[in-house]
Structures are given as C-alpha cells and as structure tokens.
C-alpha cells in the first residue's frame, strides 16, 4: 500500500475506468526444447520488456528455465491480453532466433520459437470466494 494520499501504482485510472489487471503468463518453447541459458534469458527479458512498454503495460517480474519463461504483467484494459501475448511471442521469437542462431536448432523449431499455446492466469485482488461472498451479500433495493 502506498502512503496515504499517494496514488497506488497497481491501480490504473482512465477517463471511464479504474482497474488493476495483473496476469501470470507462462510460455514454453516449441517441443519443450531446452534452449535457454542465462544470456538468452536475459536478452529474452529485455525484448519482452520493450514489447510491454509499447503497449503501455508493465512487466513486473520475469523468470525462466531451459524450456520456459514466467511473466507477471500489469496491463491496461484497452488492450486485449491475447493481442499483447501474440505480439510478445512474435517479436521475441524473431529476435531470439536471429540473435542466437547457435543456440536454436532451426530445423527442429521450424521457424517458430514458441508454440501457439500459452498459459494465462489472472492474479491480484481478493480471492474468488471473497468476491463471490461480497456480491451475494449486497443489499438489494426493496
């Protein structure tokens, strides 16, 4: 929580909306190939941060292992998460394959670094049971 009177950086405000949208994303490499080393993970994070900035979104946390990456993102409601993900995967795939030709077996990857699928989980805010109880217990006008 920010000190009293200061805006909360997790709350985005716009002309007609106040929101806090966070998502946990998981991308695995094509065929779950062990591709990443520390240098490549660092570059992948740099590329992904730039893409998120272009969409006025924030990459809060990034981590990965040889065959996958995890991202915690904070994004605006004006952009669909699927559009962000498609751009992110497309740009990072192209750049990583160009910059790390020795690490990526082009024949196995067949021109694609990531498969078409990904995991996205919403996070932040109150647990679902708390929100459900709050909605159920709202007073209805008589």
UniProtKB/TrEMBL annotation:
- Check the record and name the Gene3D superfamilies matching this protein: Transposase IS200-like
Residue span(s) of domain Transposase IS200-like: 18-138
Query: Which InterPro entries is this protein grouped with?
Result: Transposase_17, Transposase_17_sf
Using the record, list the residue span of the signal peptide; answer none if the entry has no such feature: none
Which superkingdom does the taxonomy of this entry point to?
A: Bacteria
SUPFAM superfamilies with a match to the protein in the record: Transposase IS200-like
UniProt cross-references to NCBIfam families, sorted A to Z? transpos_IS200
Instruction: Give the matching PANTHER family.
Output: TRANSPOSASE FOR INSERTION SEQUENCE ELEMENT IS200
Name of the molecule in the record: IS200/IS605 family transposase
Organism of origin is Streptomyces yanii
Gene name? tnpA
């Amino acid at each position: 929580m920010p000190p009293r009177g200061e805006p909360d950086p997790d709350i985005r405000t716009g002309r007609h909306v106040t929101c806090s949208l966070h998502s946990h994303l998981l991308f695995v490499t094509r065929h779950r190939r062990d591709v990443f080393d520390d240098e490549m993970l660092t570059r992948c994070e740099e590329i992904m941060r730039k893409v998120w900035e272009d969409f006025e979104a924030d990459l809060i946390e990034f981590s990965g292992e040889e065959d996958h990456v995890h991202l915690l993102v904070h994004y605006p409601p004006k952009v669909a998460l699927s559009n962000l993900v498609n751009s992110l995967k497309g740009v990072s795939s192209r750049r990583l394959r160009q910059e790390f030709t020795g690490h990526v077996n082009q024949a196995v990857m067949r021109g694609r670094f990531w498969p078409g699928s990904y995991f996205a989980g919403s996070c932040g805010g109150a647990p679902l049971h708390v929100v459900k109880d709050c909605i159920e217990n709202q007073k209805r006008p008589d």
